[in-house]
Amino acid sequence: MTLRQSMAGLHTWGGLLPSWLLFVIIFTGTVACFDKELEHWMRPPLHEPGREAVMGADDISRWVSTHISAPLHAYWIHGPTDRAPYWHLGWEEDGSGKRGKVMFNPASGQPLPETLGGEFFFTLHYNLHAGQIGMYIVGLTGMFMLVALVSGTIIHRRIFKDFFTLRPHASGQRAWLDAHNLFGVVGLPFHLVLAYTGVAVFVASYMPAGALVAYDGDPLAFYTEAQGGFHRNEMDQPAGTPVSIDGLVTEAGNHWQTGDIGWIVVEHPEDASSVVSIRRLDPSRIGSPQDTLSYDAFTGELLNEQQAPAAYRAYIWMIGLHMAQFGGQLVRILYGLLGLAGCMMLVAGNNVWLRKRASNPSPGMALVRALNTSVFFGLPIASVALLWANRLIPADLPARASVEAGCFIAAWLAIALVALVTRHARPAQTRVLTGVLGLLALGLPVVNYFTTSHGHLLMTPRHAPTLAAVDLVLLAMGIICVWRAGKGRSAAVSPLPTSSQEPA
Fold it and tell me: Pfam families, alphabetically (predicted)?
């Protein structure tokens, strides 16, 4: 048996078995490239143009002391940016480790209505909203993806010729195989890099034993040394009067000669050891700068200037390369298109597997078809349903984000049920679900028009082009899906040619 022959089975089964989970990871990662744009779109109070910011970091700090009664281990703040024009506050309670977050409208100083936001897709991408266990599952799936990519490269002897070959009107298996090869070759370098970096950036979480042994079970000590960071132990003494955080931000900006400031972290805010750490922001670099100034929270004294070691800077560079938080919208669009190519590669590959076995059906084929429909249609439809829920659920509803999550889950389960009930009517099933996705996407900009005063397509092209882009992408997706569904219906009702109509 040759190497190519031995890789064929590995590619087939190593690609099929994790394909549905890989689709979830790649699709949500593609959407997460635009997480901040989606976050902005999902928060209508931010859409009103021309209002000046009246809120600062000190206002956030006062809100924390007024509205959070539990003792805090730390809280962190990020100011408005072009992509995320709101204040972000997060905190962790001391002892319990419970976390919370609130977003603020910088123009009014008021907390924004709760929503899942674009961060929902980012979290689904890297840990499936399942914490540490989910992170392990995603890492294992990423390793399967690397195996499938390498074995696929080996078994395709005409890999560059396949790049220029697409016969959509050929027999079913041939057309799907051409599509699988095309989308696989187009995104091959991208998919290899993203699969590798996706696994590598969490290596310390996947294999923590070495650090725990070397640092006597204290992971914080390991991360502090690896990052070159600064940490001050609690003194168990009452806190003093804090200095102005806005003043410290101004001082840090003068130190770096820039106005771009990233995260502001306040550790042990109720203890005399409290430290305010301010990180520099530079979205033009692949790896976010780790330049951090640490100040005494009560005297304003500069305690430490972080200089990250070279190894940690390389690690951050890999994170930046994977997350596409550099280079502006052009890079994110490129990542998005190549991510969609990865999704289509999986869809085409699973259809090749089914077509090859069509002449010899087995019970496993019904399961594969049901999973294909449930995942390949279910996740996109559920994602659009989440955006519908964001617009239709009242802003003052308690636990609003949980209701949005419930709508997402319910929509996905509904598609899975449809896949099960209509498993014997496959062409009609595909046509109907494609039409449903198209109509939902086409209808959302209309709903957006009636539910927002400044965030709809007629208002946003000038003052907020990224908001307009969300609606335009939905319209384009809707038109393509409705056209495709209509084309499938026309093919289904076309009469078969009679013998007199066949060519001689």
Answer: PepSY_TM
Strands (E), 200-319: 261-267, 275-280, 292-296, 302-306
pLDDT in tens, 201-216: 998 888 888 888 888 8
Relative orientation angle of helices 400-421 and 378-392, to the nearest 10 degrees: 150
Closest by CA position to 228, among listed 298, 279, 284: 279
- 123-172: per-residue pLDDT in tens? 999 999 999 999 999 999 999 999 999 998 888 777 666 665 666 666 66
Collapse the DSSP code of 254 into the 3-class scheme (helix H, G, I; strand E, B; otherwise coil) and give the result: helix
Rounded to 10 degrees, the C-alpha dihedral 400/404/410/416 comes to -160
Gyration radius of the chain's alpha carbons? 26
Helix (H, G, I), strand (E, B) or coil at 108: coil
**Residue 16 near residue 163, CB atoms below 8 Å:** no
Q: Please give the structure tokens belonging to residue 363.
A: 């019970």
What is the C-alpha to C-alpha distance for residues 341 and 184, in angstroms, rounded to an integer?
A: 7
Exposure class string for 166-192: b at 16+ Cβ within 10 A, else e: eeeeeeebebbbbbbbbbbbbbbebbe
